């Protein structure tokens, strides 16, 4: 058949452009710093995940350089064959110690952890029980399984119990999956209650703590530490790409989990391992978290101040309990307009609109950075106030 | 591009309610004697004012309507001056015939949506002429409002109109339900399912990029539900499957090549349709032969009833014999968005209590995907 085999590439892209859904990549001329230069413009950064500003920390940079000097630029292989370097093992040991779990495993990315591990944990005749607001990478991991799926209302424990009661009769294995910190609202899954319910019904627990690692719990040790239930969550999954300031996915739990995971996760088995520089920076990030508590403290001080001031200006900041603070403005167009005005005025924060959030809950999502000063925050707040008033949001 | 809206008011709708009549169908004189006052015009104007106040500056609507109190007066009173009157009634009191004739005019004018003010009777009259050709949106004003075409109040209806005009809402199934006159003449109050119209519903979205979502049509979801049901039938090959009424289940059955009925209860065994439009007796006979059975139901109408409205053939005796655990509920997410609870009113206290004690049921909303939905029973 005579067909124009690749014409859809342009057509579908143009459709995205027409509807304003294409990503216009904004190029940073600096690194991801609290004051970044984005396309020639200096902005206060309120939309990076570099919560602790560790990506710029001298010890992480040194860790990367030293590892590259010692082990080279690349690892040469997948982990399973010849790509496991001593430094990879060192990171996993240190991470398990930091997370107070028996063992840990580093994946290439957080997405690779979810997409690689979840499909191995359940099969036909099993069920995955999922919070309705879970992240896209969990959803993709779940799509790769043959298990049934049941969804419960966001953070609603009585609904979760209802699903468990129903599932208890019907299935072999039950796996409960939830985000730890939800990225749209900045609220936290009640992990203590989830673990308790899971215990009652013989279910496994899996938490994607991408936005909680390095942020919540003592020393930023994540959601297990936050609720004082370290080692009781079957799979604590997270990432080095956010607060840790580097890149890479992680899981922490029992040695059995880790042995199972690296033998079965296809994403882990079929991707090259991290370059030594990445592992060196990861190791240094854990070092910094263990020895320099000021970064987590600064992050929370900034968060509390910023939230309090936003509220006193009259903004609706939703249910957030973390450094993700949504500034809810209502209609999608208003959120887009506010974001664009803020950017022109030197504040970089992205709009989140329907259908990512409810139609009347469009927002600017701000993500705090430990490296911002009170002066920076006051300047950002002043701009929020100015444009919030002009757009009749406050 | 502007939207063409056909606007019709049934001026006598709702008049029976305050004087204790079950609707105004055929009893207008009696209602008037009892002191009934017209309410539909007021409701229609209220909704139009809400609409104009909140949304009109951005929407472009071309209005098609009927003479005087059948639409034109309400539009004018609310402040809409530009309209095309496409139907004029002749008698002093309008009747269901007027509604039907007006709808024919709307069809001729190719309107995009019929916005009406009335109750179940009005919805039924419109549906008889329009079928599924044009979506219907109702401003609630009647005595009976079981059909799935109504907004929950004037405010919600105004918002739905705005969202329809701006293409943020889509078209989905809406059951037309009304009092069963035959049973009513025998002094029995029963709501029957008359058909499935096109209503306007919240689309279902799936994330396809990081921030890009695509809306999934109701039929795509129904395809997933079909896969799910086929799988259940395959897995439970020694079970009798009773297919309930309504658009969702009808679609599933048709996709599985069963020549079933839209409004009745049909039975499938061993992948063959073995009973069609069954009554209680017929179902009980089948259950004697096939004691293991499952019932597939979907919420119907404006209130989300799964039992007790539109499917009385599924009597308490049948439900008890099949067992609550063998009820499979399927629904499109858009349907659940408008009816977030499942209602049960079987007429049997003990059975209603059994449902009440469950508090919620799992509803299948996609292939191998289910969610918890609360149950509400009338008596508990």
Give the topology, please.
The complex is a heterodimer of chains A (about 400) and B (about 375).
Chain A: H1 7-18, E1 35-38, E2 41-45, H2 58-71, H3 86-99, E3 103-107, H4 110-121, E4 127-131, H5 136-143, E5 148-152, H6 157-170, E6 174-179, H7 191-201, E7 204-208, H8 223-226, E8 235-239, E9 249-253, H9 255-264, H10 266-269, H11 276-291, H12 294-312, E10 324-330, H13 332-344, E11 347-348, E12 350-352, E13 362-367, H14 374-390
Parallel strand pairs in A: 2-11, 4-5, 4-6, 6-7, 7-8
Antiparallel strand pairs in A: 1-2, 3-9, 8-9, 10-13, 12-13
Helix pairs in contact in A: 2-11, 3-11, 4-5, 6-7, 12-14
Chain B: E1 3-9, H1 28-33, H2 40-54, E2 61-66, H3 72-78, E3 84-87, H4 96-108, E4 113-118, H5 120-130, E5 136-140, H6 154-165, E6 170-179, H7 181-185, E7 191-201, E8 204-207, E9 213-216, H8 218-235, E10 240-243, H9 247-255, E11 266-269, E12 272-275, H10 280-289, E13 293-297, E14 305-307, H11 316-322, E15 327-330, H12 333-338, E16 341-344, H13 349-358, E17 360-366, E18 369-377
Parallel strand pairs in B: 1-2, 1-4, 2-3, 4-5, 10-13, 13-15, 14-16, 15-17, 16-18
Antiparallel strand pairs in B: 6-7, 8-9, 10-11, 11-12, 17-18
Helix pairs in contact in B: 2-3, 2-6, 4-5, 8-9, 10-11
Strand content of chain A: 15-25%
Biggest β-sheet strands, sense, barrel of chain A:
7 strands, mixed
Number of strands of chain B: 18
The main sheet of chain A orders its strands as 3-9-8-7-6-4-5
Find the CATH topology of the largest domain in chain A: Aspartate Aminotransferase, domain 2
Q: Report the biggest beta sheet of chain B as strand number plus sense, adding barrel if it closes.
A: 9 strands, mixed
Which structural class matches the secondary elements of chain A? Answer: alpha/beta
> How many domain regions of chain A?
2
Largest interface: A-B, 22 and 18 residues
The figure for the number of domains of chain B is 2
Radius of gyration of chain A equals 22 Å
**How many individual helices of chain A?**
14
Give Rg of chain B in angstroms: 22 Å
Shape of chain A: globular
Helical residue percent band of chain B: 25-40%
Helix proportion of residues of chain A, in percent?
40-55%
Strand content of chain B: 25-35%
Q: Please tally the β strands of chain A and state the result.
A: 13
């Amino acid at each position: 058949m005579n067909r124009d085999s690749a014409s859809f590439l342009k057509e579908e892209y143009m459709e995205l452009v027409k509807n304003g859904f294409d990503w216009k990549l904004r190029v940073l001329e600096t690194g991801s710093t609290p004051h970044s230069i984005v396309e020639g413009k200096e902005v206060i950064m309120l939309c990076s995940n570099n919560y602790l500003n560790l990506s710029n920390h001298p010890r992480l940079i040194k860790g990367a350089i030293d590892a590259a000097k010692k082990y080279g630029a690349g690892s040469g292989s997948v982990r399973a064959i010849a790509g496991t370097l001593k430094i990879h093992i060192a990171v996993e040991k240190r991470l398990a110690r930091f997370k107070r779990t028996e063992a840990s495993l580093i994946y290439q990315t957080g997405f690779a952890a979810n997409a690689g591990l979840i499909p191995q944990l359940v099969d036909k005749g099993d069920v995955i029980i999922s919070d309705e607001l879970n992240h896209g990478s969990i959803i993709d991991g779940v799509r790769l399984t043959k298990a049934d799926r049941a969804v419960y209302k966001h953070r609603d424990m009585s609904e979760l119990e209802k699903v468990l009661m129903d599932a208890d009769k019907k299935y072999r294995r039950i796996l409960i999956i939830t985000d730890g910190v939800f990225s749209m609202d900045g609220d936290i899954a009640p992990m203590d209650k989830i673990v308790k319910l899971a215990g009652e019904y013989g279910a496994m627990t899996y938490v994607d703590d991408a936005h909680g690692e390095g942020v919540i719990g003592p020393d930023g040790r994540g959601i297990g530490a936050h609720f004082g239930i370290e080692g009781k969550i079957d799979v604590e999954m997270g990432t080095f790409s956010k607060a840790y300031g580097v890149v890479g996915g992680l899981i922490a739990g029992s040695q059995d989990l880790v042995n199972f995971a690296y033998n079965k996760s296809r994403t882990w088995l079929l991707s090259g391992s991290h370059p030594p520089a990445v592992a060196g920076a990861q190791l240094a990030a854990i070092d910094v978290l263990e020895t320099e508590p000021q970064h987590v403290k600064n992050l929370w001080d900034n968060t509390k101040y910023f939230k309090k001031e936003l509220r006193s200006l009259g903004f609706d900041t939703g249910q957030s309990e973390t450094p993700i603070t949504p500034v809810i403005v209502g209609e999608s167009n208003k959120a887009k307009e506010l974001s664009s005005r803020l950017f022109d005025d030197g504040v970089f924060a992205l709009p989140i609109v329907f259908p990512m959030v409810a139609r009347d809950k469009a927002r600017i999502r701000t993500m705090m950075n430990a490296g911002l000063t009170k002066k920076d925050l006051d300047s950002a707040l002043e701009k929020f106030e100015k444009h919030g008033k002009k757009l009749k949001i406050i | 591009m502007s939207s063409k809206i056909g606007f019709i008011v049934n001026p006598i709708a709702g008049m029976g309610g305050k004087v204790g009549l079950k609707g105004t169908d055929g009893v207008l004189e009696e209602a008037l004697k009892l002191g009934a006052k017209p309410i539909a015009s007021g409701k229609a104007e209220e909704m139009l004012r809400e609409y104009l106040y909140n949304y009109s500056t951005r929407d472009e609507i071309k209005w098609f309507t009927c003479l005087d109190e059948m639409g034109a007066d309400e539009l004018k009173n609310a402040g809409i001056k530009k309209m095309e009157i496409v139907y004029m009634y002749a008698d002093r009191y309008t009747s269901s015939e007027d509604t039907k004739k007006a709808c024919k005019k709307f069809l001729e004018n190719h309107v995009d949506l019929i916005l009406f003010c009335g109750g179940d009777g009005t919805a039924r009259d419109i549906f008889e002429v329009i079928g599924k050709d044009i979506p219907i949106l109702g401003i609630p004003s009647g005595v009976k409002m079981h059909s799935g075409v109504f907004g929950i109040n004037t405010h919600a209806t105004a918002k739905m109109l705005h969202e329809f005009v701006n293409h943020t809402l889509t078209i989905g199934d809406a059951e037309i339900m009304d009092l069963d006159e035959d049973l009513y003449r025998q002094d029995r109050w029963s709501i029957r399912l008359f058909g499935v119209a096109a209503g306007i519903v919240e689309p279902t979205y799936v994330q396809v990029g990081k921030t890009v979502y695509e809306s999934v049509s109701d039929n795509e979801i129904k395809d997933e539900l079909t896969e799910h049901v086929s799988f259940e039938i395959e897995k439970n090959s020694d079970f009798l499957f009773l297919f309930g009424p309504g658009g969702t289940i009808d679609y599933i059955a048709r996709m599985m090549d069963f020549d079933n009925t839209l409004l009745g209860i049909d039975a499938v065994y061993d992948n063959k349709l073995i009973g069609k439009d069954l009554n209680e007796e017929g179902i009980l006979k089948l259950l004697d032969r096939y004691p293991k059975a499952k019932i597939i139901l979907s919420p119907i109408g404006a209130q989300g009833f799964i039992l007790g409205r539109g499917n009385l053939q599924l009597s308490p005796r049948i439900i008890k014999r099949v067992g609550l655990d063998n009820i499979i509920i399927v629904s499109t997410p858009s349907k659940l968005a408008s009816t977030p609870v499942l209602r049960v009113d079987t007429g049997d206290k003990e059975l209603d209590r059994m449902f009440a004690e469950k508090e919620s049921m799992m509803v299948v909303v996609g292939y191998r995907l289910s969610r918890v939905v609360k149950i509400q029973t009338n008596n508990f």
